[in-house]
Amino acid sequence: MWFFPHGCKGGCNTANEELFKTLSDAVVSCKKDDVIAAVGKAKGKAPAVELIDNGLAAGMNEVGVLFERGKLFLPHVMMAADAMSAGVELLQDELGSSGGASSKLGVIVNGTVEGDVHDIGKAIVSTMLQAAGFEVHDIGRDVPVQNFIDKIKETNADMVGLSALMTTTLQGQKEVIELLKENGLRDKVKVMVGGAPATDAWAKKCGADCYAENASEAVAKAKELLL
Amino acid sequence: MATEYFLRMGDGQKIFMTKEDIRADIEAGSADAADLGDIPALSENEMEHMLDIITSPGRIVGVEPGMEVPVTHDIGAIRIDGDQGNSGVGIPSSRLVGSMIHERAFGADTMELGHIDYSYKPVKPVISQECQTMESCQQNMIIPMLYGAMPNMGLYYTPDGPFENPGDLMKAFKISEAQDSISHAAEHGIRDMTWIMQKLQNVGCDGVNFDTIGAAGDGDMYASLHSIEALRKEFPGIYIEAGMAGELVLGMHGELEYDGTVLAGLWPHQQAPLVAKAGANIFGPVCNTNTSRTSAWNLGRSVTFTKAAVEASTIPCHADMGMGVGGIPMLETPPIDAVTRASKAMVEIAGVDGI
Fold first, then answer.
1. Distance in angstroms (rounded) separating the CA atoms of residues B315 and B308
2. Which Pfam family, any one of them, does this sequence belong to (chain A) (predicted)?
3. Candidate from B178, B267, B324 with C-beta closest to A75
4. B86 min Cα distance to partner chain A (Å)
C-alpha cells in the first residue's frame, strides 16, 4: 500500500502528525505554492519517505476520495498531482538511491477499444493512474486491436487497461485478450476492463484480471495487481 | 425456503431475491443517493411501496387510470429506420414516417426530429434539409414536434474539432490551457446551437430538446444553459426541454459558473433551478444505473435523486428513463418488466411530471 490516509506508516508522534497533516492539507488545497511552502518547513524534521507517504501521498489519497464523491474534479486532481510532484522533487536529495515513493509503480497501456469513440472516462482513468505514480501510455480511443499489442511490446508494459462504453464494442476487450494470448504476452501482462456495460461478471467471462468501476477503483485494483 | 422474486441486475441479468434482500437493497441504494447528494432518503412508506412495485407478480405494471404522465421520445424519428445497433428496428422509413408512426400508432405525446449524428454541430452543414423535413412533419402531424440533439461538446475538440483536447492537455499538466480550450469550445457551442434553432424556429418548429446536457462536463452544461437563455430571449414562446446526460455534472473545467453557481459537482436537485433560471420549460433529471448492482438498489437510488429534483424544481420534471438510466438496466432494448416498474416508481414515488 502506498497511501496511508488514516494513520502514519510505522507510527508517529503528535508533532509529526501535525506536520503530515499540514502537508496533506496543502495537497488537498491543490495549490503548488502551498505544498512547496509546507515541504520547505517540514524538510529535515522527519525522514523524507515519511513526509511523502504520510503527508503528501495521504493528501493525494484524500483528493482521490473527494474526486470519487464528486467534490473535486479532473483539473483539481491534476493541480494536486502537479503540486505533489513539486513537493516530492524538493525532497529528492533526501530520498537517496532507493527511489522511494517517487519510483514508477508500473507501466500501463490504456485505451478505448476499436469501434468505440468514447474518450473522457478512459482519459480520467489514465490521469488518475498517472497521478498515483504509474507510467501511463494512453493510446486514445477507437484503437485497433493490434495497436494495443504493439504498444505493450514497445513499452514493456505490466498492465493494459481496456475501455468500452457500448454493449456493441465490449467484445473488443475480449479480442485484445485473445491477441495477447496469441502473442504469448498474457501471462506477463495484467488486464483491466472498464466502461459502462462492463461488470465483474464480464471481466471473468472475457478472461480479464479485474474490472474497475471508476477511476479511483482503477488505481486501487492496479496497485493490488502490480505491487 | 423463503419465496424469491424475479428482478434484474443493472446489466439486465435475471436474478431472484427474497423480499428482505430486495428491501435491503432499496434502502442501501436510497442511502447512497442521500449520502452523495446530501438529500433525504426515501421514507419507510415509500420504500415499502417500491418493494410492492418490484415484487408485483405481473410481467408488466402500470399506474392507475388518471395517473398517466406525458411521454416524450428522443430521436424517435429514426428509431424505426435505424439498424446500426442503436436500438432501432431496421424498417426502412423516412423520418416523417417514423414520427407519424409514433404519433398515430404508439401514442407519443410529443415527438422530436433528430439527425442521424444526433449532435448539434453536424447539423450545421445540413440545416436546409433539417428545415425542410421539419416543415413536412409540421404539415402532417398534430402533436408538438421539437428538434432534438446533443450539445456534445466533445465534437469541438481534436480530433473532431478545432480546439485542443482538454483531456490531452490535462495529461500534460497544461491545466489553464485545457480550461481555455473548454471555454472557447463552449462559446462556439452556444453560437451553433442557437443558430440551428433560429433556423428551425423559422419553419414552424415547436421547440427544442437539449438532450444529454453535460455529457462532456461542465463546459457542455455552460454552453447549453447560455444557449437556452439566448433562445428564450429571442423566442419567448419556444418550448425548451433540457435533459441531462448523467446524475453529476463532471468538472472538466472545474470553475465555470452560471448565475454565480459553480457547475462542476451539481446533482439533479441542484441542476433543476439553474435550468429553470436559464429559461427551460422542462427539466430532465438523470440517475445512472450501476451495472454491478441490482435493479432494486438502482431504483432506490434513482428515485431518491429524482424525487429531490422534482421537489427542488420550479418547472415540470420529465425523468430520463431508458437504457442505463432511471433505474433501468443497461441493455440496448431494456426489458419491459424493469422499464414498467421503474416508470411506475418514478411517477408514484418520485412524483415526476413526465417521462
1. 13
2. B12-binding
3. B178
4. 9
Determine the structural domain holding residue A55 and report its residue range: 14-95
Burial letters A105-130, b for 16+ CB under 10 A, else e: bbbbbbbbbbbbebbbbbbbbbbbbb
Chain B residues touching residue A168 (CB < 8 angstroms): 85, 332
**Residue A167 is assigned to a structural domain of this protein:** yes
Are A141 and A186 part of one and the same domain?
Answer: yes
Give the ipTM of the model, two decimals please.
0.72
Q: Answer yes or no: do A145 and A209 share one domain.
A: yes
**pLDDT tens digits along B153-207:** 999 999 899 999 998 888 777 889 999 999 999 999 999 999 999 999 999 999 9
**Contact list, B179 vs chain A (CB under 8 Å):** 75
Q: How close is the nearest chain B Cα to the Cα of A64, in Å?
A: 14
Of the residues A29, A117, A120, the best mutation for testing chain B's interface (the one with the most B CB atoms within 10 Å of its CB) is: A120
Predicted TM-score of the model (pTM) = 0.80
CA dist., res. A65 & res. A85, Å (int): 19
> Which residues lie below 8 Å from residue A53, measured CB to CB, with a gap of 6+?
A2, A3, A4, A9, A101
Residues A134 and A221 in one domain: yes
B215 burial type by CB count under 10 A (0-12 exposed, 13-18 middle, 19+ buried): buried
Is the same domain home to A110 and A62? Answer: no
Alpha carbons within 13 A on the beta-carbon side of B239: 15
Backbone angles phi and psi of B114, in degrees to 5: -140, 150
